[in-house]
Design brief:
Layout (H helix, E strand, L loop, with lengths): L9 E11 L9 E7 L21 E4 H12 L5 E5 L7 H10 L5 E6 L6 H6 L1 H5 L3 E6 L12 H5 L7 E6 L2 H13 L6 E6 L12 H11 L4 E2 L3 H5 L8
Helix pairs in contact: 1-2
């Protein structure tokens, strides 16, 4: 499904911008987002289709990307989020960029779970061991229109500082997510349950209050996640 990626040492970039992190346990932190172009999946509720297909993108060198991130971060921001699209399709260039950025930066990598996570970990062992490169990994629920396959192998490779996210569209998705937690040992400490929001092919999302009720009923040790950036900037699709 994804378009061919750039050669090593270069990126296909949808947008790079400064914002407030709206998801994960890092929510609220000023963060530089590097949104890379193209994806291997086509989720029905995708809210970043401009970075998946048909949108504008720019081919950038690793050096130019590092310079842009550094300029936006200045002296005060030390969080970088690599997202997409699917950023791990460009993991080689990402590893070079992360290695060139200051060692104190915390990099979160938002991945759909259906691309191997091990190569980036192997390429950046010190950053991984120090908790400066963290995966925020989806396990695709049936309501996404996609099927979780490789995600179950990737789960085994996560570390305690990593996070696992389930985007939940309905009761069937909730039960799927609950069963995954029961059936798989997950090293990551943080499990995110996020209600699907209206986007792309989804006209009506899941009421967060309903998801909260299910979580409380089953006493699940998970974190209910609402996309805070969409509360701050309602109706804005890019640059948030």
């Amino acid at each position: 499904m994804a378009e061919p990626g750039p050669p090593d040492g270069r990126f296909l970039v949808s947008e790079i911008y400064k914002t407030i992190q709206g998801e994960s346990s890092l929510v609220g932190y000023p963060t530089i987002f590097v949104r890379l172009y193209t994806c291997n999946l086509r989720c029905v509720w995708c809210d970043s289709m401009h970075a998946v297909e048909g949108g504008r993108y720019e081919e950038m060198s690793v050096a130019d990307t590092v310079r842009r991130v550094g300029d936006l971060a200045g002296a005060g921001i030390d969080h970088v989020c690599w997202t997409g699209g699917e950023p791990l399709l460009q993991w080689r260039s990402m590893a070079q960029a992360i290695d060139a950025l200051p060692p104190n930066f915390v990099h979160s990598v938002e991945t759909d779970g259906e691309v191997p996570i091990e190569p980036l970990s192997v390429a950046l062992p010190r950053r991984r061991e120090g908790g400066h490169v963290r995966f925020i990994m989806d396990v695709k629920c049936p309501g996404s229109g996609m099927r979780a396959k490789l995600a179950f192998e990737n789960l085994k490779l996560l570390r305690p500082e990593d996070e696992v996210k389930f985007v939940i569209a309905d009761r069937a998705d909730y039960e799927f997510s609950r069963d995954v937690l029961q059936d798989h040992a997950i090293p990551a400490r943080t499990i995110l349950f996020s209600p699907a929001m209206p986007a792309h092919k989804v006209n009506q999302g899941l009421d967060p209050a309903q998801l909260a009720a299910w979580i409380l009923e089953d006493r699940l040790p998970v974190r209910l996640q609402i996309q805070v950036h969409k509360v701050i900037w309602p109706g804005v699709d890019r640059g948030i």
